[in-house]
Amino acid sequence: MNTHILNIDENSLKICKKIISEGGAVAFPTETVYGLGANAFDDTAVNNIFKIKGRPNDNPLIVHVHQDYDISNLVCNIPDYAVKLAKTYLPGPLTMVYKSKGKVSSAVSCGLDTLAIRVPEHKGAQEFLKYVNLPIAAPSANISKHVSPVTAEHVYSDLNGKIQVILDGGKCSGGIESTVLDCTGDVPTILRSGLITQEMISAVAGDCLVYIPKDGEKVKSPGMKYKHYSPNCDTMLYELSELDKALETYDKFLAEGIKVCFLCDEITSKLIGGRNFLNLGKDGKDIASNLYLKLREGEKNFQMLIAVAPQDKSGVMVGVMNRLTKACKNK
User: Fold this and answer.
1) 18: phi then psi, degrees, rounded to nearest 5
2) Three-state SS for 278?
3) Is 93 helix (H, G, I), strand (E, B) or coil?
4) Is the link from the previous residue into 91 a cis peptide, with omega within 30 of 0?
5) Can you spell out the DSSP letters for 200-267?
6) What pLDDT sits at residue 57?
7) Dihedral sign, Cα of residue 128, residue 129, residue 131, residue 137
8) Residues 241-252: pLDDT tens digits?
9) Can you name the residues that pair with 163 across neighbouring β-strands?
10) Which residues does residue 279 pair with via DSSP β-bridges, in sequence order?
11) Which of 36, 130, 265, 310 has its CA 20 to 30 A from that of 73?
12) What's 143's DSSP letter?
C-alpha cells in the first residue's frame, strides 16, 4: 500500500470519504496530535485501527465529531455542568465521557458502557469531520507506545505502507493529547490531564476531581494503563533538584562515546554548561507544544536523552509530566 501526504482540499476530502465509507482508515490533524480515524459505526474498521497501531484491544478509543454534530445521537444523561463546559471549551482539546447509547461499535469503548466524545478545534479536522459526516473513532496516528505525532511527517514515519492517506494540517499547536473528563457522575473527574486543566474545569463546573486508577481496574480512558509516548532511544528522567546527578550521568555517557542530549526547559538549558540540549521552551504552553516534537528529534539524533523536569508542575504541566514520566518509564 502506498501512503500519500495530501493537503486538505476538496479532492483529498473526497478521497478520504471514500476510504472511510469502505471501512478504511485515514490520518488527520487536530490541535493536539494527529489522529488515525475510521468509521465508529463499523466494527471491522474500528478493529483495523487496533491492528494498524499494534494497540492493545482493552485501550478504548475517542470518537471525534464536528461542532454541529448532535452527540445525543450517541450518548445520554448529559449533565448540566457538561453542557456549560462544552459551551466554554468546545471545540477544543477536551474529551468528555458520557453514558453510551450503544450506537457505535462496541470495540470503540472496549466493552465499557461509556463513550468518549471529542470536538477538535483544528480547522482541518473540522473540514474532514464535516465532509465525512460520521463519528470518527481515532487514537493518535502512530505505532502503539511510540511518541505521538504532531506533524504529517511523523505519521508517515510510523504508518507508511499501513494507510493510504495522511491529511496534512501542519504542526499541531497544542502538542499533547486532550484532557479526558468523566462526565458520568455528579462531579466531573479528570481521567487524563491535558491542555484544559483542573482549574479551568472547576472555574466553569464549580468543582473537578482527578481520578486515581486502582490495580486491576478496567481502563476508562486512553493513556491510563500502558507505557506511551516513548522515543526509540534510551531515556532517563531527573528532577531539577537532581541536576548535579544528571550532569554527572551526561558526562559519564559522553566519556563512553554515547551520543547524549538533555531534554529540558529554557531555564535548565542555561545551567548545563554548554552540553547538548533540546529546548522545550519557557512555559507550560511552550513545553506542551514542543514535547513530542523534541522527543522525535532526540530519537533521530541521539542514543540517550536525559530529561530534566521543570520546577513548575502546575496547570498544563500536570499533563506534560504525565507524558514525560510515561515516555521515560522502564527505559
Assistant:
1) -65, -45
2) strand
3) coil
4) yes
5) HHHHHHS--EE--PPTTPPP-STTSSS--SB-SSEEEEEEGGGHHHHHHHHHHHHHTT--EEEEE-HH
6) 81
7) positive
8) 999 999 999 999
9) 160
10) 264
11) 36
12) S
Q: In what order do the strands lie in the sheet with 260-264?
A: 234-239, 304-309, 260-264, 277-279
Please tell me what DSSP assigns to residue 146. B
Residue 120 pLDDT greater than 60, yes or no: yes
**Distance from the first to the final alpha carbon of the chain:** 33
What whole-number distance in Å separates Cα of residue 228 and Cα of residue 71? Answer: 29
β-partners of residue 11 are none
pLDDT, tens only, 261-313 = 999 999 999 999 999 999 999 999 999 999 999 999 999 999 999 999 999 99
Residue 296 phi, psi dihedral angles, 5° rounding: -65, -40
What stretches of the chain adopt beta strand conformation (E)? 4-7, 26-28, 35-39, 62-64, 75-76, 94-100, 114-118, 136-137, 165-168, 179-182, 189-192, 209-210, 234-239, 260-264, 277-279, 304-309
Considering only CA atoms, which of 237, 210, 213, 236 is closest in space to residue 309?
Answer: 237
What is the pairing mode between strands 304-309 and 260-264? parallel
Instruction: State the Cα torsion 170-175-176-182 to the nearest 10°.
Output: -70
Instruction: Report the distance separating Cα 149 and Cα 141, nearest Å.
Output: 6
d(CA 326, CA 38): 27
Closest by CA position to 1, among listed 160, 238, 183: 160
Q: What angle do CA 244, 246, 251 make, to 5 degrees?
A: 95
Phi, psi (deg, nearest 5) at residue 327: -65, -35
